Every structure is written in C-alpha cells, then in structure tokens.
Amino acid sequence: MISRRAKLAWLYGISLSAAAACLAAVAAAPLLMAHGSKNAVLIYALFSPLCHQRPDRSFFLAGFPLAVCARCLGIYGGAFLGLAARPLVRPLTDLRPPRTAVFLAASLPLAIDAVGNGLRFWSSPGWLRLATGLVWGPFLPYYFLSGIGSLFASPDERK
Q: How far is CA 27 from CA 57, 77, 140, in A?
C-alpha cells in the first residue's frame, strides 16, 4: 500500500511539472509562431478559454504576444513559484490552506486593479498587471493541493 505521504509527494510533483509546462507553453506559442509552426495556433487556442489574450495587455516574445495576458502570466508564474516554495513553507502533509484574511489581502490588489480596468477608471501598464498576478498566484496551489490532497486523507484526518 502506498503511504499518504508518498501520494502527496506524487501529487506535488505532478502539479509542479504541470505548472512548469504551462509556463513553457505560454512562452513557446510566440516562438513557434515566429517560426511558422501550426502548433502555435493550438497553444493559443488552449489558453483562449482561460484568458482574453488581448495583445495590448500582453507581453511579446519574438514579435508575437505570449499565449496569455500580463495578469495571467503573473498568476501562472506566481502559482509555479508558490508550488516550488511549498515544501519550504510547510510539510506536504500539512494540507491547511492559508488563512482567509491572508488570501483576501493578497486578492485585494488584483481585484482593485481588475475592477478599475473593467470600469475604465484607468488602464494599468503590463508590469502592474503582472505584479498583481504574482502577488495572488502563489496562494492558488495551497488551495488546490488542500482540495485534491484531502482525497488521500483518512476519514479521521478529514475532520
């Protein structure tokens, strides 16, 4: 029988690999587009349900926009950094998510900026959109790992 710790380590490894693959795909899309590869269109299409992909809100590589906007890039990058730092912050077997107040505090800059942009009070530069995503993104893996990891918990540990 595989131990709970081993299952959580496997889940962590898969999650970290998936986050790295997402970031690689975000950067690969414009590089592939610059080389005329049809695979670039597929990558852009895969990210389109998750991001508006507006060029005026995106960073460019090789003359083409990344597969996601600056804010989404920050969220994905932050999620990857949060996952990478996770074992340094607390053991993988500790599935408690961050305190709600901490999560809300990290969400506030992103929410204010997104609402302000949505209501056309201002138009944030790309670096600010990236920064708000980088502040919020690292918290997401904690909730993901807590939720999925709880599937490996015994009935006593779920209480």
A: 15, 12, 21
CA–CA separation, 146 and 98 (whole Å): 10
Which distant-in-sequence residues (6+ apart) come within 8 Å of 52 by Cβ? 69
Phi-psi label, residue 71: left if phi above 0, alpha if psi -120 to 50, beta otherwise: alpha
Give the integer Cα–Cα distance in Å for 154 and 116. 45
Q: Is the pLDDT of residue 43 over 60?
A: yes
pLDDT in tens, 55-106: 999 999 999 999 999 999 999 999 999 999 999 999 988 888 889 999 999 9
User: What are the backbone dihedrals phi and psi of residue 125, each rounded to the nearest 5 degrees, phi first?
Assistant: -70, 160
Task: Supply angle C-alpha 91, 4, 89, rounded to 5.
Answer: 10
State the DSSP code for 60: E
Q: What is the pTM assigned to this prediction?
A: 0.90
What's the burial of 1, exposed, middle or buried (CB within 10 Å: 0-12/13-18/19+)? exposed
- Can you tell me whether residue 148 is helix, strand or coil? helix
Q: Which two tokens stand for residue 92?
A: 């993988």
Strand partners, 64: 61
